[in-house]
Backbone:
């Protein structure tokens, strides 16, 4: 009847608007490469900030000693302690705790957020045994992984450019986040030095390199998304400092803020963006990352409910609540293999308070999830191709046997299997068989924290 025809028409339109044929993905990849060049050429030259990380040496395996890391992501934060044994022994020991960030702190004051973080750090240290006592007079050292755009001014200082991913704390913007953290640590009465400030992508790159010398880039697909890679310092026109001995500089792309006329945007993306905390910003992130995928599905479903009355005459009130449908729920529905789609049924009931759904409705919802996840995953693959192009690794080089490894991490990549499979398949499709063989995607499990600790080790005040 008319209602189903209408629903089918809306879905069909969505599918067309979200279409990512290979030719389009190549345009996206090319645009990414172009923006990378522009961002490296001059400060403010591109939507891509291409931030100089001050990391000009990646871990070698020789790092030694006891180091801490703090990893502030978008959803959780972790406190980590690693014991590094040097060349022969590697990572001897690691311990961590994970705490979710109370929502009120994401939109409160800078002091409240940093106090909370420092208090957790202090608790973590207070619990440790005598084996972790440092010799008298020796300060503990910490690497701070901070997954928001920061204008670095040295390896352990940098000011916040803006918040992303649902954080909005005005008084932190423009402040040195290391100074903020250090003050909070001091208020806790803890004696600890912040030796390195790194973006999570840079941490993941470092953690990945520690395990595999062929790692040259890192991509995060979590609450948000971003990428970092190793650039030749000479290829960074905006860098006016001394050329590092290594000749290399890690660049934090801040690719979440990428945008291009080639990106397939729908009415749902436009309204999501307009109503977000950061309208006009982070458009790539809003298409591909975990914070937003479920919300895009909710918006499309809401429109179908309004126009095709698939849940009856009135739109179920919960369906109108922004961000109520989270990406882990979307992913669970997408992965539902039961013949009657029980998982979909339960999530509709428990999250959206919609009961008595027909199988037909549940199938429609799985299809929605598939359309939105596929677009995100394929665009993420195009982004990676853009980085590989910049590195000159998108073509076959005669006689070259060395692998090019991209370290990936983040909850979305790790848990949303349909998404990560689609992303990897699309990358293979884009690269072709021959080049595809030399490119490896490696899951770097929680490399960002360990990476920050490794970078803190190589910038220790005691070296
Ligand atoms: P962050 O990006 O905050 O540092 P993570 O890398 O742990 O943290 O990613 C967490 C994000 O990953 C969540 O916000 C969510 O969007 C996504 N995620 C977590 N679990 C799942 C899941 N099962 N399916 C899909 N996405 C998930
Ligand atoms: Mg993270």
Residues:
């Amino acid at each position: 009847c008319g209602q189903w025809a209408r629903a089918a028409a809306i879905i069909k339109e969505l599918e067309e608007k979200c279409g990512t044929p290979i030719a389009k993905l190549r345009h996206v990849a090319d645009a990414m490469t172009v923006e990378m060049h522009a961002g490296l050429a001059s400060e403010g030259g591109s939507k891509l900030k291409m931030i100089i990380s001050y990391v000009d040496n990646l871990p070698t395996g020789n790092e030694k000693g006891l180091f801490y890391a703090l990893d502030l992501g978008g959803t959780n934060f972790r406190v980590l302690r690693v014991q590094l044994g040097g060349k022969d022994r590697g990572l001897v020991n690691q311990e961590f705790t994970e705490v979710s960030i109370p929502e009120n702190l994401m939109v409160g004051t800078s002091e409240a957020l940093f106090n909370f973080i420092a208090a957790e750090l202090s608790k973590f240290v207070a619990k440790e045994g005598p084996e972790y006592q440092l010799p008298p007079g020796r300060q503990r050292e910490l690497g701070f992984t901070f997954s928001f755009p920061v204008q670095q001014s040295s390896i352990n200082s940098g000011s916040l450019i803006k918040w992303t991913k649902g954080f909005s704390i005005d008084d932190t913007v423009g402040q040195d986040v290391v100074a903020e953290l250090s003050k909070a640590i001091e208020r806790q009465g803890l004696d600890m030095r912040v030796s390195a400030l790194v973006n999570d992508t840079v941490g993941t790159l470092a953690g990945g390199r520690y395990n595999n010398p062929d790692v040259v880039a890192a991509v995060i697909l979590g609450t948000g998304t971003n990428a970092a890679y190793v650039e030749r310092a000479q290829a960074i026109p905006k860098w006016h400092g001394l050329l590092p001995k290594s000749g290399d500089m890690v660049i934090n792309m801040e690719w979440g803020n990428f945008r291009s006329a080639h990106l397939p945007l729908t009415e749902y993306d436009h309204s999501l963006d307009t109503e977000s905390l950061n309208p006009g910003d982070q458009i790539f992130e809003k298409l591909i990352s975990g914070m937003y995928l479920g919300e895009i599905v909710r918006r499309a479903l809401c429109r179908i409910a309004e126009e095709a009355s698939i849940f009856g005459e009135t739109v179920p009130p919960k369906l109108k609540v922004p961000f109520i449908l989270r990406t882990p729920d979307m992913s669970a529905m997408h992965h539902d293999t039961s013949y009657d789609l029980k998982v979909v049924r339960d999530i509709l009931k428990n999250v959206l308070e919609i009961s008595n759904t027909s199988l037909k409705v549940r199938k429609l919802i799985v299809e929605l999830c598939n359309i939105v996840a596929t677009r995100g995953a394929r665009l993420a693959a195009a982004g990676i191709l853009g980085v590989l192009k910049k590195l000159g690794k998108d073509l076959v080089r005669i006689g070259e046997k060395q692998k090019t490894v991209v370290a990936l991490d983040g909850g979305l990549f790790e848990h949303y299997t349909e998404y990560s499979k689609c992303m990897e398949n699309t990358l293979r499709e884009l690269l072709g068989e021959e080049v595809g063989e030399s490119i490896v995607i490696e899951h770097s499990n929680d490399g960002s924290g360990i990476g920050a600790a490794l970078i803190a080790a190589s910038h220790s005040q005691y070296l």
In short: Residues 73-76, 147, 222-224, 290-291, 327-328, 331, 410-412, 415-416 surround adenosine-5'-diphosphate (ligand 1) (CB under 6 Å).
